Amino acid sequence: MTKLRSFALTACSLSLLSSTALASQELASVTAIVENAPTENGNVDCALFRSPEGFPMNPGVAIRQSMAASSTVRCEFAGLEAGVYALSASHDENANAVTDTNLFGMPTEAWGVSNNARPLLRPPQFDEAAFDLAPGQRLTFTITLDK
Predict the structure, then answer these.
(1) Is 86 helix (H, G, I), strand (E, B) or coil?
(2) For the chain, which residues make up each domain, given as ranges?
(3) Are 140 and 31 in contact (CB under 8 A)?
(4) What is the pLDDT of residue 89?
(5) Which CATH number among 1.10.10, 2.60.40, 1.10.1270, 1.10.3470 corresponds to the domain 27-144?
């Protein structure tokens, strides 16, 4: 019985130590300062992606925020685990909750991504906008919107 009690105490101690270690991991944050919305109509939408899935214009799998449009908008994402992320932002001028595109799929509303990646004639890839976020790190990006 003593061995069983000793084993149970050891197991409880190890469990407590591992949960304390997990709780002490520092969560990180990312701030996007979005500039150059052409008008103050509609919203500026920000999306934070952890993978290429949906990047940059399909934020269904991303953490999203929407703010009233102005010349400069600040989107903040807190409580994040360390990892690789990418940001996208768009000016939803008509407030229809999507980035409108033309017949060829090119955005007709202003948009931008982290690292201000803007390849010609194609959407930016996740890797072009990606950044590493370390535990406890606080990063700020300025994203300049353009059509």
Answers:
(1) strand
(2) 27-144
(3) yes
(4) 96
(5) 2.60.40
